[in-house]
Amino acid sequence: MGAAVSSPDRAVDEEGSDSHPSRPGLADIPESCISSLLMNLDPPDICKLARVNRAFHRASSADFVWESKLPPSYKFLANKVLGEQNIATMTKKEIYAKLSLPNRFDGGAKEVWLDKCSGLVCLFMSSKSLKITGIDDRRYWNYIPTEESSTCRFKSVAYLQQMWWVEVVGELEFEFPVGSYSLVFRLQLGKASKRLGRRVCNVDQVHGWDIKPVRFQLSTSDGQHSLSECYLQGPGEWVYYHVGDFVVEKPNEPTIMKFSLAQIDCTHTKGGLCVDSAIICPTMLRERLGKS
């Protein structure tokens, strides 16, 4: 037969000598070209391609690749959670990797990170960062430890025993990347604990929430407003109550917001409520909260 044998990189003639020079491979692509290509991909895909070869690995670490994935307001966020001195010694890839992880600030009362796909901010505010009417009077409210570390991001929740006037208010000034965001409260009727390794929820003190709805409000410094009402439901389960949405249109400008939940009808008492946190997340991710 004596036919020539070929491979993807070269052709061999009948006498075994190369008839054509080696064809270019992935290793021959200039790193600058690879980096320009990677800029058009999402961060998870960049990390996958970094494993192709050394050239891709080096190209994937270029500062301009990762700076293109950071939002314009990333310096505000980085200064808040990393500190200005640390930023000066970090590569853009290191900054992105750090900001993509949950970072605590304000004495550990808040937690923030960048969503890896959208580049938008996710922010959790614990009950201790909120203004709760009567929180200093143990006849009404108590901070109780929680063992639900898999679902509660903070070590304690605010628990209402009984009160006539219930109001929880949050205030925040923050530079968000441009995009659409939702704000929700994470609440539960009843006090959860573990018994013989199983989760149980005491709902003995739950009362008053089926008489009048709770009012949720959100307002921002640029004139956005939201108002809604609903009855609290699902005793024994954490429920995410949508307060409202807001849009950030200008980068590098702080958004000042105020939000609240209130049931201030003094014709009846209310009790048995756990307040875990208030959450700000990209609107497109809001439906995932209950599943995460």
From TrEMBL:
Q: Where is the composition biased (Basic and acidic residues)?
A: 10-21
Region of interest (Disordered), ranges: 1-26
CDD domains per the UniProt record, alphabetical: F-box_AtSKIP3-like
Residue span(s) of domain F-box: 23-69
Q: Which Pfam families match?
A: F-box-like, PP2
Residue ranges annotated as coiled coil are none
Q: What is this protein called?
A: F-box domain-containing protein
